[in-house]
Amino acid sequence: EVHLVESGGALVQPGGSLRLSCAASGFTFSSFWMHWVRQAPGKGLVWVSRINSDGSDTIYADSVKGRFTISRDNAKNTLYLQMNSLRAEDTAVYYCARDAQSARADYWGQGTLVTVSS
Amino acid sequence: QSALTQPASVSGSPGQSITISCTGASSDVGSYNLVSWYQQYPGKAPDLMIYEGSKRPSGVSNRFSGSKSGNTASLTISGLQAEDEADYYCCSYATSGAWVFGGGTKLTVL
User: Fold this and answer.
1) Which of A29, A50, B12, B37 could make an SS bond with B16 (beta carbons 3.0 to 4.6 A apart)?
2) pLDDT digit string, tens, across residues A7-33
3) Phi/psi at B27 (5° precision)
4) Are residues A29 and A74 in contact, defined by beta-carbon separation less than 8 angstroms?
5) A55's torsion region: left (phi>0), alpha (psi -120 to 50) or beta?
């Protein structure tokens, strides 16, 4: 069974940094592209970033470009999101999701909450 | 990367059909048949309901259907049931390679 488990969410001050992790199991992690999607409290889903299967290609939403870095360790079956220069508007639940091709996310983690506040 | 446009809310009575629209641009919805739809209950992760505009993953009820015309995609739920009450989001692949979501639609079953 496919499982995605995010961790690393916390309360952080504006300007601070945080690294999120997403542990994958139940499938061949190295064969799938992966995404991060976030959801601010009471708001809608917003796509954040995507990485291809071997980590050689990444893409970001304009709102996080230059501040966030997506990466993966296929040996550890883990996806990461390094978040720097955090702002209050980055406060959200962050989900990792598996890309099943054709622009569909067929499995999602339960999410991890990031709160940016002083 | 502008968000796709969805109605904030729709409602219907049990047994009725409802349709949720999702309007994008020629750089996303209009250029690709790569629109997906997600159902989300409060406090839960989203679930995939439709992909490639009209295809249903295994396990999704055939009461859910999708279509597209020009820059607008649509999700139709027929035979509305109380369990369908949730938030629904459309998502499209965009020319830049990014994904773009709609703002979400809250479905209320009266």
Assistant:
1) B12
2) 999 999 999 999 999 999 999 999 999
3) -90, -5
4) yes
5) left
pLDDT per position as a tens digit, A41-79: 999 999 999 999 999 999 999 999 999 999 999 999 999
* Cβ–Cβ under 8 Å, residues A36 and A81: yes
Decide the pairing of beta strands A112-116 and A11-12: parallel
pLDDT tens across the length of chain B (110 residues): 789 999 999 999 999 999 999 999 988 998 899 999 999 999 999 999 999 999 999 999 999 999 999 999 999 999 999 999 999 999 999 988 899 999 999 999 99
Nearest 5 degrees, angle CA B74-CA A50-CA A85? 115
Q: Give B51→chain A minimum CA distance, Å.
A: 6
Instruction: Give the pLDDT of residue B11.
Output: 97
B104 closest CB neighbour out of A45, A62, A100: A45
Please give the single-letter amino acid code of residue A76. K
Residues of B in contact with A46 (CB under 8 A): 3, 101
